[in-house]
């Protein structure tokens, strides 16, 4: 439930994987199959000749180097910037406000409600429960709208449907307090935190 | 909320608005796409590794070409020599090293490729709720089903093992020696619990009662 660009991630990771697999396979074939080595000699020498010719043609006037080097350096700089931008996209989407554009005729000015209100209210409401090992609440922005993400780690054997219904009622109470329905994702999670806590025998 | 005149914090005001705006219900396309993403694994880790790898290669290439452009000694290898070596490839390097390098490249490439192409379905089910979008780890479902199976079979926690997958729930019960377990009763108890839970997709149930019992449980 965050702004990670999932389609872009898949495409770029697939491209890199394909390139690495292809070059690795070429290296393995070069060592093991002599005819591939023959073909590689002819093909790569041809490419090298053409590149050398191109470098001759594009020489900077008065100097020995070709401006292709500058172009290659520029491409690499652009690539680095793009990669950093891509990295910065991962997992972003945390928001601060759950209500930002509150409009009603009676209140002068603008009302903003911080995500901390909902987070603290839900955490406090769930804090005393014996059937939960841990509770996490965070505010995220989903498609430009704020939403809440609630993750609970129940102890072993707790019925998830009962837990979901109870948290759903808490969220409805929160709706009344905040005055706006925010999308809520409830993740009832297992994991080590639940597994190593004692099982709930009596409810 | 735009044209209401009463106080915004009163419950009577907020509720009708909440009722007909219908945003935030699981039928909402935004929430549905969140739920779809929550049941698939994230590629953020692979994406981060890929980006760092490309950045590293680019920084190295930049360093070597910059050193060449200002006429300095290369750090490891100068680009032209590297290209000449590449052209002559099967010679000039031990075949074992070359093959091993290729194999490692293929391995990491396949890891990236499969990470990107496989569906990466997570072991999670969805629950239906009128207000909240609910995702449940299969582990939690298994623990809840194990609890009801344990109560129905009247055995200890260690004698029941439940495996939950996308479309099948397998309940394995090892009875206490000398005390018969009614398979039908376990089946109906687990069925009742699963029906009350109503996970989607709804799995089928299979109950296996072991032939040999546990002594002294």
Q: What distance separates the N and C termini of chain A?
A: 32 Å
Q: Quick one: CATH class of the largest domain in chain A? A: Alpha Beta
Shape of chain B: elongated
Q: What is the residue-averaged pLDDT of chain A?
A: 84
Number of strands of chain A: 5
Strand content of chain B: 5-15%
Task: Write the CATH architecture name of the domain at 137-209 in chain B.
Answer: 2-Layer Sandwich
Tell me the structural class of chain B. alpha+beta
Can you tell me the residue ranges of chain B where pLDDT is under 50 for at least 5 consecutive residues? Answer: 1-26
Main sheet properties of chain A: 3 strands, mixed
Overall pLDDT level of chain B: 81
Catalogue the unreliable spans of chain A: none
Oligomer: heterodimer
Helix fraction of chain A by DSSP (H/I, runs of at least 4): 40-55%
SSE layout:
The complex is a heterodimer of chains A (203) and B (217).
Chain A lengths: L5 H27 L1 H24 L9 H23 L7 E6 L8 E4 H13 L4 E11 L2 E10 L5 H19 L5 E5 L3 H4 L8
Parallel strand pairs in A: 4-5
Antiparallel strand pairs in A: 1-2, 3-4
Helix pairs in contact in A: 1-2, 4-5
Chain B lengths: L10 H11 L7 H10 L5 H26 L9 H9 L7 H23 L6 E4 L5 E5 H16 L6 E5 L3 E6 L9 H15 L1 E2 L3 E6 L8
Parallel strand pairs in B: 4-6
Antiparallel strand pairs in B: 1-2, 1-5, 3-4
Give a summary of the structure in a few sentences.
By secondary structure, chain A is α+β, with helices and mostly antiparallel strands. Helices cover 54% and strands 18% of the residues of chain A. In chain A, the strands form 2 sheets. A 3-stranded mixed sheet of chain A has the order 3-4-5, covered by helices on one side. In chain A, strands 1-2 form a two-stranded antiparallel sheet.
């Amino acid at each position: 439930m965050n702004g990670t660009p999932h389609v872009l991630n898949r495409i770029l990771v697939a491209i890199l994987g394909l390139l690495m697999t292809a070059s690795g396979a070429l290296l393995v074939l070069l060592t093991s199959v002599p005819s591939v080595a023959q073909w590689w000699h002819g093909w790569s020498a041809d490419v090298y000749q053409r590149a050398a010719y191109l470098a001759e043609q594009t020489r900077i006037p008065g100097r020995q180097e070709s401006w292709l080097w500058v172009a290659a350096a520029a491409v690499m700089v652009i690539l680095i910037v793009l990669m950093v931008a891509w990295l910065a996209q991962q997992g972003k989407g945390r928001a601060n406000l759950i209500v930002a554009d509150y409009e009603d005729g009676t209140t002068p000015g603008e009302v903003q409600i911080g995500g901390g209100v909902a987070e603290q209210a839900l955490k406090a409401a769930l804090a005393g429960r014996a059937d939960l090992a841990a509770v996490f609440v965070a505010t995220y922005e989903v498609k430009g709208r704020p939403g809440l993400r609630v993750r609970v780690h129940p102890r072993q054997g707790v019925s998830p449907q009962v837990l979901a219904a109870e948290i759903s009622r808490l969220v409805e109470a929160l709706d009344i307090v905040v005055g706006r329905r925010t999308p809520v994702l409830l993740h009832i999670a297992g994991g080590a935190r639940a597994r190593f806590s004692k099982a709930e025998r009596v409810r | 909320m735009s044209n209401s005149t009463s106080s915004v914090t009163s419950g009577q005001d907020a509720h009708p608005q909440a009722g007909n705006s219908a945003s935030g219900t699981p039928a909402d396309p935004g929430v549905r796409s969140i739920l779809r993403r929550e049941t698939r694994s994230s590629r953020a880790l692979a994406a981060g590794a890929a980006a760092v790898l490309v950045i590293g290669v680019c920084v190295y290439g930049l360093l070597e070409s910059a050193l060449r452009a200002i006429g300095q000694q290369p750090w490891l290898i100068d680009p032209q020599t590297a290209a000449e070596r590449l052209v002559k490839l099967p010679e000039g390097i031990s075949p074992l090293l070359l093959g091993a390098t290729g194999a490692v490249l293929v391995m990491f490439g396949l890891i990236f490729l499969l990470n990107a192409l496989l569906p990466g379905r997570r072991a999670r089910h969805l629950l239906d709720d009128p207000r909240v979008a609910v995702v449940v780890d299969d582990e939690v479902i298994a623990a809840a089903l194990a609890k009801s199976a344990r109560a129905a079979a009247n055995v200890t926690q260690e004698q029941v093992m439940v495996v939950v997958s996308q479309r099948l729930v397998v309940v394995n019960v090892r009875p206490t020696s000398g005390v018969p377990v009614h398979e039908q009763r376990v089946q109906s108890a687990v069925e009742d619990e699963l029906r009350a839970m109503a996970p989607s997709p709804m799995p089928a149930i299979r109950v296996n009662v072991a032939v040999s019992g546990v002594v002294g449980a």
